Description:
By secondary structure, the protein is α+β, with helices and mostly antiparallel strands. It is 38% helix and 12% strand.
Amino acid sequence: MMDKLLRIDLTIGKITTEDIPAEYLRDYLxxxxxxxxxxxxxxxxxxxxxxxxxxLMFSVGPLNGGYFxxxxxxxxxxxxxLTGIWLDSSSxxxxxxxxxxxxxxxxxxxxxxxxxxxxxxxxxxxxxxDASKIWGLTVTxxxxxxxxxxxxxxxxxAAIGPSGEKLIKIACILNDSARAIGRGGxxxxxxxxxxxxxxxAGDNKVPKFEEDSWKELVKDTIVNIKNxxxxxxxxxxxxxxxxxxxxxxxxxxxKNFALGTWDKYNQIDGPYxxxxxxxxxAPECHACPIHCARYVxxxxxxxxxxxxxxxxxxLGALGSNALNDDLESIAYFNMLCNxxxxxxxxxxxxxxxxxxxxxxxxxxxxxxxxxxxxxxDQDAMQALLTLIMNKEGIGALLGEGTKHxxxxxxxxxxxxxxxxxxxxxxxxxxxxxxxxxxxxxTSPRGGCHCHGYNGGWDGSRDMPEAxxxxxxxxxxxxxxxxxVKAVQDFCSAVNGSIIxxxxxxxxxxxxxxxxxxxxxxxxxxAKELLKTGERxxxxxxxxxxxxxxxxxxxxxxxxxxxxxxxxxxxxxxxxLDKMLAEYYLAREWNEEGKPSKExxxxxxxxxxxxxLYQ
Length: 614
C-alpha cells in the first residue's frame, strides 16, 4: 500500500502505520504542507524545544517516487530548536525517492530513545537498531556504517554528525553525503532523541507513474528545464553564478552586510570554481536535469579535500560576508560543516558577527580563546568554526545562534546581529531586491528566502495567475508585497509537491497545477493551486501565532535597515512599514499579525480559530 503515515515512538519502541486522510493529501499536497497539518495539532506549546513532545516529521509529496525532474527531495519539519517556532527544511539527493517507494508519504518521530539508535526502513519492514557504535562518527562515516550494517549500499541515509549529538542549535541533517536539511537546528532535535540516522529503501511502484501520459509529461518537462537559460547556466557554473552577478546587483552580503561592494567576488564565484577546483562527477540528485551540484578536489595544501563543493550560500557565508577571498578554504570549511553536521549559513553568520564584535572591541582575544579574529583570516575562521562545531568556549555561545549570542554579549552587538526571529538571513541582501525585505520579515521560519523564492521574480518576471501583471523593478515598493504574497503561496505549493525551486524558472502555477492534476487525480487549476499554497502558508503562520509570534516580530535587523557602504545599492533602504501595511491587507491578517477569522474560514482552517481567537 502506498502513501501511508509511519509513526515511530522512540520512547517505547512502538512502530505503527496509519492511513492519511484523503482531504489532507488534496488540501495540503505533501511535504511541508502535510507536515503543517499534522504538527499543528500534535506539537504542544511548551518552553523546552527538546522536550519529548516536540516531534520530527519527514515527508514527501505527490511528485516523489518516480522520475519527475528534481523529485528526489524530501522535507523535515518540527518546532525549531534555533528559533522556537515553525521549521521546515528540504533536501535533495535520493532520500525522497526511496521514502515514497517504500510506501510512505510521512514519517513522524516521537519521544526519545534512552540509548543511541538508528531506524532502518525497507518497504514495510521497519526496525529500530542500536547506534552506540556509530555515535560520534562524522556524517559520511555514519552513512557508510549504516549501509554496511544493513547490507544495503544503495539505500539512502539521512544522518546527523557530532554537532547534532551535542545539541548545537544550528545542527543540521544530511543525506547522501552532503545534501542538507540545513536551517533551524533539526539536527539538534534529532540528536536530542538519540536518533543518529534513518536508512530508507523501497521498490514499490506508484501506479500513476507507469502510465504513458505521465511519462510523456515528464519527458516534456525535462526538455523544458534543460533548454531554459537560467537552469542551463546553473548546470555549467552551479549556484555560485550568483556571486558572479554580485558586482552589478549588490545582492551578495559583504562584511556582515555592511559593505555594498568588494573587488574579490570573482575569486570565489561559480566561473572561478569551474576553472580551478571543479571536477566532473555523477549527478548527486535523483532525476535532476539541472546538475547544479558541485564536486571539487583540492590535491594539496592545508585545504586538501575532495567531495561536494560549496553552493552560493556557503560562498557568501564563508566568503564575501567574511571578506575571505580564498576559494579553497571556503570549500574546506564547507566540507567541515557537512561532516560535523552544522548549518553553513548560521555558522558563517556566527563567525562574521564575532568578527565585527572583535573589530569593535566588544569581544576580546581572550574571550575568543586566543583567536585573532580579523576579517578574511582563514586560520582564525577555521579555529572559531572548530569551537562552534565542538560546542567549546565562545563557540558554544555562537552555536546557539546570533540572536542569543547578541543578547548575552550585549554592548550594542544586537545592532549587527543579522537575523529575523532568531534565524540568520540567507546570503541575499534585501537592499538589492525590496521583495526580500517583506519575504524575510514574514517567512514562517524566520530569515529565509525559501518560503518565497523572490529572487526568481523580483525584477525579472510577473505572475498573471495571481493577478500580478508586469515586471517590477528590484527596488520598487508599491505593489511589491502583492508579488511577495503570490510567490510565497506558489512556493508553499512547491514545498508540498515537493520539487526543487530551480524548476520554477520553467514551471508556472498553471503548469504545476496541470502536473499535480495528472499525478494525484485531484482537479487543480492555477487558482486552486495558489489557494492551496495560501492555506499552507497561513497554517504555518497560525502555528507561530500559538507560540507568541505577532506583528512586532515581522521585522528586519537594524543592519539591513541601514544603507550599505558603496556599491549599486548605496543609499537604498527598504520601507518595510509601508510594504508590510500593503502585505497585511493582501494577506487579510489583523493588526496583531493573525490571519482573520474570515480568511481562516475561506481556506478551510476553521479548526485554527479556537486557538487564535479564544
